[in-house]
Amino acid sequence: NAGVMQNPRHLVRRRGQEARLRCSPMKGHSHVYWYRQLPEEGLKFMVYLQKENIIDESGMPKERFSAEFPKEGPSILRIQQVVRGDSAAYFCASSPRQSGVGEQYFGPGTRLTVT
Amino acid sequence: RKEVEQDPGPFNVPEGATVAFNCTYSNSASQSFFWYRQDCRKEPKLLMSVYSSGNEDGRFTAQLNRASQYISLLIRDSKLSDSATYLCVVIGGQAGGSYIPTFGRGTSLIVHP
User: Fold this and answer.
1) Which residue from B45, B92, B106 is facing A42, i.e. has the nearest CB?
2) Structural contact between residues A96 and A33, judged by C-beta atoms closer than 8 angstroms
3) Across the strands, what pairs with A113?
4) CA-CA distance, B9 to B13, in Å (whole number)?
5) A64 to chain B, minimum CA–CA distance in Å?
6) Of A43, A48, A25, A44, residue with least CA distance to A100
7) How many CB pairs under 8 A join A and B?
8) Are B13 and B80 in contact (CB under 8 A)?
9) Spans in chain A with pLDDT lower than 70
């Protein structure tokens, strides 16, 4: 059973470009969470999705950031018009059920560098 | 007060030592608690859940103190491979019944020969 997959592992973008980060959850998992981790900082929740639904996006900036988890295919975190402050590691995690009663399994992360 | 607080450390201990970390949380309605481990620049990995009655997994023991709102992790007979950052995770209790995990910033452990 493959674990959570994320790609690309490393992404370099110039200021103003768009970044697309992809996450394929573990087989059988229908809950996906996205987190951001800045250097020397903790993990910050961004958004929680189930298939075709955004359940909670309270941690996601209102502008430039969006997320989706379509019926088919991976979950996508999209950052438009990137700025240097967006440079961070972005982790996705999946869970077979609501995290209140389940555990989360993390992907290896995408390290975004904005130049 | 932060929602989840941890002493960042680092805790520097020799091999074989016993070390304990605490993590305090502010929301008394929190429902689920976990310890994760994160190695440098890698993804967090679930170490263990924390139950009200406490639980043990080999050299690791986790406990929950609801009255004082903290959880603890005890590591016995430390190994070099235990060197990592240990993240405390608290879930539940938010308005509307949301089950969003809140991560502490982690406690760094360095085990030396």
Assistant:
1) B106
2) no
3) A12
4) 11
5) 22
6) A48
7) 51
8) no
9) 1, 98-102
CB neighbours of B19 closer than 8 A, spacing ≥ 6? B11, B13, B74, B75, B78, B109
For residue A113, what are the contacts with CB-CB under 8 A and spacing of at least 6? A10, A11, A12, A13, A87
How far is the C-alpha of B13 from the C-alpha of A64, rounded, in Å? 44
What is the structure's pLDDT at A28?
85
Mean pLDDT for each 10-residue chunk of chain B (113 residues)? 88 97 91 92 92 91 95 98 96 67 93 96
CA distance A94 to A30: 7
User: Tokens 């990137």 correspond to what residue?
Assistant: A82
Task: Considering only the beta carbons, identify the residue of B34, B41, B98 that sits closest to A56.
Answer: B98
CB–CB contact A100 B44 (8 Å): no
> What's the residue count for chain B?
113
Q: Which residues of B touch A88 (CB under 8 A)?
A: none
Name A73's Cβ contacts closer than 8 Å, sequence gap at least 6: none
Nearest to A86 by CA among A33, A23, A32, A16: A16
Structure tokens at B48: 């263990």
pLDDT at residue B96 in the model: 55
